[in-house]
Design the sequence.
């Protein structure tokens, strides 16, 4: 090729294509015609063909260090770890508004009340983790069961839980004690503190429940203030707590920006005992709220495995409905 | 559930492409440990994005794109060091004496070829390796390098010219490859 000659310069890209075996018929024809009369370009084409041949050899030649076994094994375990942490979530309407359910391979990891519309908040995004993906199929069954529960057609959500988003061991203990509260029962924050053997930790218990990643499933709505006031739920949405309790047969009365459970209207038992009483039973005298579990209905208490007290006989003298 | 299906499908993707992607990364980084790390990272990223990949996508080309981006980030942080290595490697090479024997000449030329490729500027080098070592289409190379098909071809051709020039005197006419 003569770098000075315009014809040679013009044919050069085609020449490279021909050498690489990429040229179309027209370009190949042009190159043939040119090299027939230009010896320099003919030589150049031969050199590029040699070069392509060498690259073919290089492509097929074994590479030093070409052993992927270790990297493949490490990748396998990192993928397994990623999979087990990865949350698939679904967002859907419910009787309590828009709800998000997220699940990992290990179990249900997150339940969140969402505002009626708009994108997910930074807070929810953070809870979901960066690897979360929307996966309605993975949460559809959970959605159906949750709606049944919220409509009062189901008393249990027997879901495997992924509790790796707990903030601390303390929170885990609080939530485990809360998860053990029977359907239709309430107890106080102090009652949970007593159950986990930390009777003075009432405020920390309330904090731990405030950050419950699995409301409804771990029934923090069954934990109320010592006065019977519901005190708070899902930010400022105490009305959701009232509705969840109403579904379970726990009646409340409205009270200044809040609702209150009327102790006098609740079947009552000393936590750890096996019998439930009417609230006026002599055995309950001088018991503080922190030692009590309250049931809205006899059916609730009996479904939880408790028997009517043999002295106050709530079975014979039930509370007015 | 769709989820499980997607994961099984991804296992197949790893099985089909991991070795080649690692080889590509080995070619562009020239270090086994970097190829290990970057190939793992490529597939972890791919796993995260896999569900969002439209059905019928060209998975192999998509993996090359991820690997290329990781490789370029890697060079950005390692750039100075790599250039220093390349320069040192070039300097240490004595000029090839003329040999009558074609086979020795071919080995000589091949070694030289490898060194010349490793000394190419970033995009040309990546485009060249994707095209000549992994036989990707120009459109796929363009997607990997965020440029057009035409620019991808131009990168490869520029690289070819440089390789050709640097092998001047080492490319006997009509010397065919041994394979």
Sequence:
């Amino acid at each position: 090729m003569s770098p000075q000659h315009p014809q040679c310069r013009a044919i050069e890209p085609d020449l490279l294509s021909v050498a690489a075996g990429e040229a179309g018929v027209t370009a190949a024809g042009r190159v043939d015609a040119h090299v027939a009369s230009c010896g320099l370009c003919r030589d150049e084409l031969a050199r590029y063909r040699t070069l392509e041949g060498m690259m073919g050899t290089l492509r097929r030649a074994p590479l030093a260090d070409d052993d992927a076994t270790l990297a493949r094994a490490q990748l396998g375990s990192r993928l397994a770890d990623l999979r087990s942490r990865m949350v698939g979530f679904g967002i859907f309407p419910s009787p309590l508004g828009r709800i998000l359910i997220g699940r990992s391979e290990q179990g249900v990891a997150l339940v969140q009340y969402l505002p009626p519309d708009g994108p997910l908040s930074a807070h929810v995004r953070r809870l979901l983790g960066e690897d979360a993906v929307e996966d309605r199929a993975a949460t559809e069954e959970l959605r159906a069961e949750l709606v049944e529960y919220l409509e009062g057609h189901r008393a249990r959500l027997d879901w495997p839980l992924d509790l790796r988003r707990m903030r601390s061991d303390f929170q885990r203990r609080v939530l485990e004690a809360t998860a053990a509260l029977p359907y239709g029962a309430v107890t106080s924050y102090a009652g949970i503190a007593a159950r986990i053997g930390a009777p003075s930790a009432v405020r920390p218990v309330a904090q731990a429940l405030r950050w419950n990643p699995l409301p409804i499933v771990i029934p923090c709505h069954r934990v109320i203030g010592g006065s019977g006031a519901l005190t708070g739920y899902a930010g400022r949405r105490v009305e959701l707590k009232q509705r969840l309790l109403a579904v379970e047969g726990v009646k409340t009365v409205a009270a200044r920006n809040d609702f209150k459970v009327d102790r006098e209207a609740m079947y009552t038992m000393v936590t750890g005992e096996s019998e439930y009483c009417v609230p006026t039973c002599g055995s309950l005298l001088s018991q503080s709220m922190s030692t009590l579990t309250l049931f809205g209905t006899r059916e609730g208490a009996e479904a939880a495995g408790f028997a009517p007290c043999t002295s106050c006989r709530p079975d014979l003298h039930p509370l007015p409905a | 559930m769709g989820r499980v299906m997607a994961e099984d499908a991804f296992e197949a993707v790893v099985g089909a492409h991991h070795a080649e992607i690692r080889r590509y990364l080995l070619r562009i980084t020239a270090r086994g440990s970097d190829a290990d790390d970057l190939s793992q990272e490529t597939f972890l990223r791919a796993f995260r994005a896999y569900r969002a990949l439209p059905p019928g996508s060209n998975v192999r080309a998509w993996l090359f794109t991820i690997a290329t981006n990781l490789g370029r980030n890697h060079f950005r942080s390692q750039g100075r060091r790599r250039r220093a290595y390349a320069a040192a490697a070039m300097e240490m090479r004595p000029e090839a004496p003329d040999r009558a024997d074609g086979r020795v000449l071919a080995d000589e030329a091949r070694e030289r070829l490898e060194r010349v490729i490793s000394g190419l500027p970033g995009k040309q080098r990546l485009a060249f390796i994707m095209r000549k070592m992994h036989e990707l289409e120009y459109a796929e190379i363009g997607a990997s390098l965020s440029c057009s098909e035409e620019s991808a071809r131009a990168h490869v051709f520029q690289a070819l010219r440089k390789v050709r020039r640097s092998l001047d005197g080492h490319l006997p006419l009509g010397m065919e490859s041994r394979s």
